Amino acid sequence: MLRSSNDFFNKSNSNLVCVCFILISVLVNFNVGSEEESPWKINPMLWTTVSTSKPSIGKSILNLFRLGVRNIVTYTQRKMQTRTIVQRFLNHPFYNESKRVAIFLNRPDEVKTRKLIRLILKSGRKVFLPWYEANSSTMKLLQMINIYDIKRYTKENKDGILQFTNPENRTEAMESGGLDLVVLPGMAFSLDGKRLGRGNNDLYPNYLNELKKMSPHYRTMGLAFKCQVVYDFPLYNNCIVVDHIVHSYKVYNPAAQIIDLIDPFGNHTHYNEYLKFKPRNSSIPRIKNATMKRLYKKYKKAKNKKATNKTKKNKKSKKKKSKNNTTNTKPKSG
C-alpha cells in the first residue's frame, strides 16, 4: 500500500510539474519546440548566378522578405520585438564601449530606431545618420546635434529614406575622428552574420571599406525582426559580414537547445557547428517558420485560383464556340 501511495504521489507530482511547465511556456511565450522559434531557410534555387561566380541578390528574395515583414509581422508584434531589441542593444558590450555611434532612420519594413536614437543621444554619445545624393555612389554619415533634428531637419529622398535637409552645416564622421560602432539596416541576416542589403542601392560596403583605413577597430551590428533571421545564404558581391545581430528570438534552434540566456549578446559562434549538419541543395523550399509557411500557402492558393479561373474561362469560350458552330452547321428549314 505504501508503495502504491508513493507511486501515486510521484505521478501526481510529475503531472503537476508538466502542467506548470506548459503554463509557464504559455505565459512567458517561450514556444518550446515550436516552429516559430526557428529561423527560415532560403531555397538556393532562388539565387541568380552571374559571371563572377558569386551569386547576386535575386529580386524574388527581396520581395519575399518585404512581404514577410509587412504581411506577417503585425503592429503589436513589431512593438514587442522592437522593445526586446532596444533592451538587448542597450545592454550590449559593443554599445557600452562605444562613444561615436552611426545608426539609420528606419523604413516601414525595418526595426524602429527613433526611440533608440533618443536614448543614445541622452546617454551623451555622438550619433551619426546616413546621407547621400540622388543617383550617386558615395554616402556620408553626418552628426546629429539634438533630438529635435529628426522632426525638424529630416525629409524623405527619392528612395524613401529620411535624410537631413541641411547637410552643409553638419560634420562628417570620418572628418571628425571616425566611428566606434556602425548599426546597419538589412533585409535579412544569416546566423553567421551575413547581411542581405537592398541590391544596387546599398552604399554601406564602399563607405565601410574607407572607414577601415581611419578606424580599423570599429564594430558592426545588425537589427532584425524574427522573420529576417535565416539559417544561411551564399555570399554575393560586396556582402557585409556583421559582427553581431540584435534580434528578438528566445531560441534559435530548439533541437540543438541553444538559448539566448546562455549567449544574450547574439554571438553566433555556437551555431556554426549546427550549420555543418544542415541538409543542402534541394529544389523544395525548406520553410521552417510557421508564419512563412502560411504566407507560402496563401501564395500557392492564389496561383491555383488564377489557374482554375483561366481553365474555366477557356472551357466557357470553347462551349460558346461549339454552340456557334452547331447553329451554323444546322440545315435551314424551308
UniProtKB/TrEMBL annotation:
Pfam families cross-referenced by the UniProt entry: 5-FTHF_cyc-lig
Signal peptide range: 1-33
InterPro entries registered for this protein in UniProt: FTHF_cligase (IPR002698), FTHF_cligase-like_sf (IPR024185), NagB/RpiA_transferase-like (IPR037171)
Keywords from the UniProt entry: ATP-binding, Ligase, Nucleotide-binding, Signal
Region annotation Disordered: where it falls in the sequence: 298-334
Coiled-coil stretches noted in the UniProt entry, renumbered to this chain: none
GO biological process: folic acid-containing compound biosynthetic process; tetrahydrofolate interconversion
Class of this enzyme: ligase
Low complexity: compositionally biased ranges: 324-334
Reaction equations catalysed: (6S)-5-formyl-5,6,7,8-tetrahydrofolate + ATP = (6R)-5,10-methenyltetrahydrofolate + ADP + phosphate
EC numbers: 6.3.3.2
Feature: compositional bias, Basic residues: 298-323
Nucleotide-binding keyword on record: yes
Keyword ATP-binding: yes
MF GO annotations: 5-formyltetrahydrofolate cyclo-ligase activity; ATP binding
UniProt cross-references to PANTHER family, sorted A to Z: 5-FORMYLTETRAHYDROFOLATE CYCLO-LIGASE, ATPASE INHIBITOR/5-FORMYLTETRAHYDROFOLATE CYCLO-LIGASE
Entry's family note: Belongs to the 5-formyltetrahydrofolate cyclo-ligase family.
Record protein name field: 5-formyltetrahydrofolate cyclo-ligase
